[in-house]
Amino acid sequence: MHPSDKVKLLDYQCICRYRPQITHPEPDELATPSLLRGARGVYTNSIRAELHSIGVDDLPRNGALVLTNVASGERPLQDLPVELGVTKQAVSQVIDILTDRGYLERSSDPEDRRRIDLALTERGHQVVEAVDRAVARVDLQLLEHVPAETVTAMRSALAALAAIKATALEQGAGKPRPARQLRQFSPIFPVSDLGAALVHYTALGFKTVAYPDGDDYGFANRDGIGLHLLVDHHHENEPSHHRAAAYLYVHDADALYEEWSRPGIGGETLPVCSTPYKLREGAHVDPDGNLIRFGSPMEE
């Protein structure tokens, strides 16, 4: 070992020896908002993991809650905006997305044509069952730490807090979270053969589905990114060129290049290179000539 390395090792040992011990305060020493923040996400993370295990990764924000609400039928949908702290328009947008992606079905009420009934599809039922499993898993873990009566008291306290929030909103003391004006950008790629395009994007790792009422429109979704695929009869006889283009910001452009350049993928994936604007950038051209440029930040 080089003498300088010995000095560094001794310095590190001294730092470790005199490092202050971290202590965690007791629950009754923390403010209620801090406790709520610390516990936030435990059910959400469990649900996300369960949905991932069944291949569901394209639910919109609050999508699982809307589906479980439709499944139970216990609360009217008009109550959801207050519970979620969002606008009615935001809930309506979630329902539209869930319907487009095959989780919900709409139908008109025969007795009232102005009323729209919602029902879960088979895929929607799979999501609700996965959510139930995820929630049950956390519930069991919770009972390993505290008695059942404590859990019951906690639920009563949380219900009271929700009622306080709802009352405040009704009295104008608080405003629902405004819906984001721009939620997701979905390019529409013209294709010559919808079936072939769906197969190609499936090979790229997308979840694909054709629109139920026709053979000229489809969807490809992955990691919250959505593409629309449209059969464009006007370009069937034109030579291949970049008909449409989209830029995709990714976590690791080099890893995506390796994935999309595997044998049998089809189309053409161009190698990744470093750009003057500090991105590692590559591109993929699908068999119909649509261009996806993708990039990730370069390490400093």
Kindly describe this structure:
- With 300 residues, the chain is α+β, with helices and mostly antiparallel strands.
- It folds into two domains: 27-170, Arc Repressor Mutant, subunit A, CATH 1.10.10.10; 188-297, 2,3-Dihydroxybiphenyl 1,2-Dioxygenase, domain 1 (Roll), CATH 3.10.180.10.
- It contains ten helices and ten strands.
- The chain has helices at residues 3-17, 32-39, 42-53, 63-72, 80-84, 88-100, 122-143, 148-170, 194-203, 253-260, and strands at 104-109, 112-120, 188-191, 207-210, 217-222, 225-231, 245-249, 268-274, 279-285, 291-297.
- The strands form three sheets. Strands 3-6-5-4 form a four-stranded mixed beta sheet, with helices on one face.
- Strand 1 and strand 2 (112-120) form a beta hairpin.
- The chain is globular, with a radius of gyration of 26 Å.
- Mean pLDDT is 79; it is low at 1-23 and 236-240.
- Structural shape: globular
Which CATH architecture of the largest domain is right? Answer: Orthogonal Bundle
The string of secondary-structure elements, in order, is: HHHHHHEEHHEHEEEEHEEE
Give the % helix: 40-55%
